[in-house]
Write a structure and sequence with these properties.
The protein is 48% helix and 6% strand. It is mostly helical. It is elongated and about 80 Å long.
Length: 494
């Protein structure tokens, strides 16, 4: 008979503590989260991110939710102890069945009163073990110690019965002084290690839905690297030395900037784990490398920028390749930002200023972060940029019914610019490390030389940090101010 076809009482007792329990399915610690203010409880099989089950606790009150969660936790553990061979599907079905029955009256009855005779059931089972099984002197002493502990608990609690989960924890040694005397035959398997792989699964299950697909893909890749490096290390017992050794292993084959990027991902998971009770303390503070962070990307000289713009201006007015290069020169936009521009992103303001609106409104569009959305004015005649010709191109796209300005995809555009256009434009002056992104560095360097305030430069570059704009490479500054600033920056260049 399937164990789930049995009549399932609200209370359940372990039938024999003398049998060494080896469960078919090992369960991770129950996890709580909120959605639209409602608390939920998630059950998960250890080591799996797909075998999960979630139930609504049907309340927005934290205290009531935790009370309901405790009730369900006790039933699922009691059921699991009664049926150690239960599959995850059976445990999931039991959780859903109990949630449907218990939570309908979750706030009408005190949680402990639902357990009735649990205490007496377990006490009786222990007495039967002591009376019927052939035990050695040491084993008999262990069982008697457990019985004495439970008798003391009964003397302290003459009202509500003790939840089964608390009794099991007492027998496992998690509470009380007698725990170490309980033999292995009376204990449940210890919690599995809290590896980074396990933490990653929990973190992504909670936070993954809020990340963009591109960000989520990058996060998973980073987590995969960290999981390999940390291996089976139980992070509940990790030390500073463990993390320093991991960082050094990463740095042996990776650039310092890449290592720091991985550490940022690690710290995000650690902070979340502490907030949610999975870890008590972490040792990742000031773990990032501080040397060897110089960017390998280079900036074009002003003479090189002039040659790139001249190369672009010789391309047909109807070719997107011309405007891909030209817009990169005068706006410092990232390749993906320029490649995803649409006709509606080219805006002429009431002041007569024409600007590109970098945003992620529309299918398939994305930006690096929230500070990346910005309006960047287009400066006519900068390095010879022909604004009128560009607007004619935009109008032709509209007439043809094309929403996107690009005639080629992002990757194809990058290959063309980096492998063909820029080398061809620079000729013998071309060097390794000079790419489309170098146009961004060049504009940043030019603004720094011209004494542009960091906040104004940030409005153009769309970077989240005010200082990084000048260190390696829209903050509410009026577009008219930025337009005037860029006109001054581009004056007398080219």
């Amino acid at each position: 008979m399937n164990i789930l076809s049995e009549n399932r009482p609200v209370t359940s007792a372990v039938t024999s503590f003398a049998i060494h329990l080896r469960p078919t399915t090992r369960l991770a610690k129950l996890y709580h989260y909120r959605r639209n203010g409602i608390y939920y409880l998630r059950l998960r099989e250890t080591g799996s991110t797909s075998r999960t089950a979630s139930v609504s606790l049907k309340t927005t009150d934290r205290r009531a939710a935790m009370d309901a969660s405790q009730r369900l936790a006790e039933t699922i553990k009691a059921f699991h102890l009664d049926h150690p061979k239960a599959t995850f599907s059976e445990l999931k079905e039991h959780l859903l069945w109990m949630a449907e029955n218990l939570l309908s009256t979750a706030h009408e009855v005190h949680s402990l009163r639902d357990w009735g005779d649990l205490y007496e059931d377990v006490k009786t089972n222990l007495a039967e073990i002591a009376a019927t099984m052939p035990l050695s002197v040491d084993q008999h002493e262990h069982v008697m110690n457990a019985k004495q502990m439970m008798a003391a608990a009964q003397a302290r609690l003459q009202g509500d019965s003790v939840p089964l989960v608390k009794i099991i924890r007492d027998l496992e040694g998690e509470h009380g002084q007698m725990g170490e005397s309980v033999p292995a035959s009376l204990s449940v398997l210890a919690s599995p290690p809290m590896t980074f792989e396990v933490l990653s699964g929990l973190y992504l299950a909670d936070r993954g839905q809020g990340q963009k697909p591109s960000t989520l893909k990058e996060t998973k890749l980073c987590h995969g690297v960290l999981s390999v490096q940390l291996g089976d290390l139980d992070l509940r017992k990790h030390s500073r030395a463990d993390l320093v050794a991991m960082r050094d292993r990463l740095h042996a084959t990776r650039a310092a900037s890449t290592v720091n990027k991985l550490i940022v991902k690690l710290s995000a998971v650690f902070a979340w784990a502490v907030e949610n009770g999975h870890l008590i303390k972490t040792y990742d503070k000031k773990l990032k490398l501080t040397k060897g962070l110089e960017s390998t990307r280079k900036a074009f000289s002003q003479a090189q920028v002039v040659r790139i713009m001249a190369y672009a201006s010789n391309l047909p007015e109807t070719s997107w390749k011309r405007w891909l290069l030209s817009l990169g020169v005068i706006t410092g936009g990232r390749l993906n930002e320029i490649s995803q521009l649409t006709t509606s992103d080219i805006q002429t303001l009431e002041s007569g200023i024409t600007a590109i609106h970098i945003n992620e409104v529309g299918e398939g569009k994305s930006i690096k972060n929230k500070r990346s959305e910005r309006l960047v004015p287009l400066t006519d005649r900068a390095y010879g940029f022909d604004l009128a010709a560009f607007l004619r191109y935009v109008d032709s796209c509209k007439l043809n019914g094309a929403e996107s300005l690009a005639q080629i995809g992002y990757k194809t555009a990058g290959d063309w610019a980096n492998r063909q256009a820029i080398p061809a434009a620079l000729g013998d002056d071309h060097k390794a490390g000079l790419t489309y992104h170098s146009l961004r560095h060049s504009l940043s360097s030019l603004m720094q030389v011209k004494g542009v305030p960091t906040t104004h430069a940030q409005a153009v570059m769309g970077h989240a940090s005010g200082t990084i704009t000048f260190d390696t490479y829209g903050s509410g500054v009026p577009v008219a101010v930025i337009a005037e600033m860029l006109s001054g920056v581009f004056r007398d260049v080219g």
